[in-house]
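Morning run. Coffee first, then this:
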Amino acid sequence: MRKRLTEAEFQAALLKIQSVGDQTKKIAHAVLVEGRPQTEFVDMLGLSKAAVSRAVTRVWEQHIPQGYERVKAVLPAHQAFIVKKWAAEAQDKMESEK
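And here it is:
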């Protein structure tokens, strides 16, 4: 499944990033909002695949759908197992809602 954001989701994700360059914004917007392939920017801008992927991922990771919250916790192993299972279920649900 391709990662996609609406314009509003993209703008909200940008607000969560301290500092982001124009090139990163341009690449991430084209890939996440417009649906253009990352390889287009490898060729057009002469960047490595990894550099283009980092630009997209930097914005994508800031996106959290409404009703969800990102958490970071240190838990006993059995509780961590349960939380990881919940996280996988939530990820599946978010993907099915897109």
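Helices lie at 7-15, 22-32, 39-45, 49-60, 77-97. Good start to the day.
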